[in-house]
Amino acid sequence: TSLDLTSNNEYLLVGLQGGSSISIVSIETKSLLGTINLDQDLEFEIGTVFDIEYVDSTNQLVVSYLSSNPTYNKTQIYGWVGTPWDDSEGNCSNFTSVDKEICQNSGDTWTINYKVELETPYSYAIYAGPISIDQDQQYIYILDKYNGPPYRVYRYDITSDGLQNKIMTSNIAGGPISLHDLEYVPDFGVVVAIGGNDFTDDTSLDHAPVYALDNLNHIANLDVGSTPLAITSYGEYVYISPTDVDDNGMFIIEYNTETQLQTNYYQVAGLLGSHALLIDFKGEYLYAAVDDLSDQDTAEPYNGSSFNIQRIKVLPEATYPINNF
Question: Cβ atoms within 10 A of the Cβ of 86, count?
Answer without folding.
Answer: 8
